[in-house]
Amino acid sequence: MDILNETLLLLMPRRSEEQMERFFAEKAILKNPKILDNVLSFEKVVYAFNDLKSDFETFEPLPILCYAKACHQLGTIVPNWVANLEIKYYLAYLAFDEGWLEMPDQLKFANEQLKLLYPEKKLDAEQVKLQDLKHRAVRQYVNAV
Asked: Structure pTM?
């Protein structure tokens, strides 16, 4: 039996809009995990899982660390979720634009697509430090849940 969202709002204790967005995103995913196959829907789920209010009329990607946090949390809701190729390329392009050379642990499933976007290159010591800092920042953000 599916309870209408309006009824749930009346039955639940007071919550912020962001908490409600997350609750409804989780409910939608549990009812139909296929919504995660669409980049636009996936982006809105990422917003909700990062306690951000999304605008459904715009397409506005978030930083990679937000996608890492959302995918980490998705693993507890839909443990057998596998990102489709479109989502993998979407994440790879975002990561490439941010200067990632290897995806954070939570997004390793898109490493192959990221590697296709740049030629093999050897990192100097400064670049290695920068990549390490990026990975550390993601771990801290994800673990701050």
From this structure: 0.82
